[in-house]
Amino acid sequence: MSRAKPNRRQMLELCISRGLLVAGAAATPQPRLLAFWQQTEQQAQQPTSPDVLGPFFRKGAPDNRILRAPGDPGFPLKVVGRVINTKGQLVEGAKVDLWHADHTGRYDTRGYRYRARISPDAKGGYTVETVMPGHYADRPAQHIHYLIAAPGHKTLVTQAYFATDPFFEGNPEKNWHKKGIAAHKELVMPVKLFEGGIGTGAEPPHAEIVFDIVLEKA
Amino acid sequence: MRKSFSTSFWKRPDCLKRILLLALLATAVLSADPQDRTLSTDAPVNNVFFLPGGKELAASWDQHLRTWDAASGKLIGDRTLDPKVFPVDAKLAVEIKDKGFQLWDLSADRHSKMINGTFESLAISVDRKQMAVGSEGERSVRLLNPQTGEQLRVLPDGLGGAASLAFSPDGATLVSANFDNDVRIWKTQSGELVRKIEDLTGAMFASAFTPNGAELVMGGLDETVYILDAKTYALKRTLKGHGETIAALAISPDGRTLVTGGFDVVTVANPVKLVFWDLASGSVTRTAHSPHAVSALRFSPDGKWLAMTTEGGKEIALFSLDATAR
User: Fold this and answer.
1) What is the pLDDT of residues B161-219, one digit of tens each?
2) DSSP A152
């Protein structure tokens, strides 16, 4: 005869009732303590899933955050994110290589167009202004390649995809692994659209994705 | 005299005229490019290999391994393969299983033991005693005994999987060029990392030793051919001029001719090139166009033919080296 497995909260309560877990301050009510425990656990980050490096990586990309040149065709894209560890803490000394195809799906193999190697800012944040990558025959989903290295952490190779990509047919939940393209569902990122200041010279209309990178300790 | 010949010719019966005209046309076509030819396939074929002796060549597609007489282009063999069986060459195939793979000796019809894991790249030594398989997920290159499947050694590799693998002619050295741009050179017996080349800015999609083992030739994303001394692995010289990413290369058995094949649409405009080089002087002796990215280049053992397949192409192109010399 088997009993239902207790959930995390029931397990914690069970441990307290059996004296396996002792509340340090008598004044702290147990429910609040348990809620704090659970909240802290939820803040722990899952490491970002890996994906393939692909054939077009080039070492030596410049430290450049503005990859979109004036007059570049292609819809403007802003990529923002943070580089943190699985405890949500800042990762010191991280270097982020990112590269993607131009709006027609072609990579620059002679130079470093749409390629950068950047260091996150003091808070672990990064912002890159570029254009939406295009589609190409062999890998027909838009994507940005990443290679992230930091001292004391496992080097991560991954890719960010776009939930708005026609490749996912409006349903990335269902189609994320179509043709085996995206390695993990959580790499398909929601896309925000910003109207911008059309005709005012202010920030142009653009798409934006938030791609946080969570590294595991080595 | 000339007039009388012409007059007599046009007075001959029609069938004779047709035969003579056809003969003239055939002569013109053959003299333009005397021996190059293509073998059409009914589905995309991306690998081709010469059988020992060099009189036959083989390729597989659509679960069939076909063999032709190289000189006449006549189909002489057709063997049905099981699904998920991919020939390495005419003697050896890989059978992909759920949790690994098996090596299949096609002539003896004998399977190796099950080998766990996956791989994306593969090379076999000249003496066929070693096989190297590279895995991006495992970030390693494994050396296997191709007969038994026994694992001989695991070599830690880079981040992106092997873009190309090449054994030296004596099997003592293995080159692993990773998609992370680094090239590692290993001693196969000891597993010692002899050299790591870290200053390249593009993956080497193709690499091969010269038949005498004196030089290592590599080419890839940055469109350049690198020629290294195979004792010191110092760069001896570079060949520039292919003009597009290099997807494949082959060196003739006499070591005199290098052929580089291009990569396609993702990076540069079609059509893709095939470039023949005199390896000693570095001069281009011939160029040819290819309809798609080049997937395989193989010289016949006598060096008289170069066979080529392309990504998605439904043909095997055969280039005559005699034609190249002209």
Assistant:
1) 999 999 999 999 999 999 999 999 999 999 999 999 999 999 999 999 999 999 999 99
2) T
Q: Do B179 and A57 touch (CB under 8 A)?
A: yes
Q: Does the beta-carbon distance from A57 to B180 stay under 8 Å?
A: yes
Encode pLDDT of B300-326 as tens digits. 999 999 999 998 899 999 999 986 554
The secondary structure element, H or E, covering residue A98 is strand A95-99
Whether B265 and A136 lie within 8 Å, measured CB to CB: yes
Residues shown for chain A: 218
Q: Identify the three-state secondary structure at position A209.
A: strand
How far, in Å, CA of A154 to CA of A171, rounded?
A: 32
Q: What is the pTM of this model?
A: 0.84
Q: Closest residue of A to B265, CA-based?
A: A106
- Chain A hits for B163, CB-CB cut-off 8 Å, are 55
pLDDT value of residue B192? 97
Can you tell me the distance from the alpha carbon of A116 to that of A63, in angstroms, rounded to the nearest whole number? 6
Query: For A140, which residue in chain B has the nearest alpha carbon?
Result: B266
Task: Write the DSSP assignment of A108-144 as a string of letters.
Answer: -SSS-TTEEEE---TTSEEEEEEE-----SSS-S-EE
Which pLDDT value is given to residue A179? Answer: 86
Calculate the alpha carbon distances from B313 to B67, B291, B317 in Å. 18, 7, 10
The rounded radius of gyration (Å) of the Cα atoms in chain B is 23
Between CA A209 and CA A76 the distance in angstroms is 11
Given this model, what pLDDT does residue B73 score?
A: 85
Q: Can you count the helices (H) and strands (E) in chain A?
A: 3, 10
- What value does the mean pLDDT take over residues B103-130? 93
Neighbours of B258 (CB within 10 A): 24
pLDDT score of B28: 47
> Of B213, B219, B157, B161, whose CA–CA distance to B185 is shortest?
B157
Q: Does B181 touch chain A (CB under 8 A)?
A: yes
Among the listed residues B45, B52, B130, B33, the one whose alpha carbon sits nearest the alpha carbon of residue B87: B45
Measured torsion, CA atoms of residues B149, B150, B152, B158, in degrees rounded to the nearest 10: 50
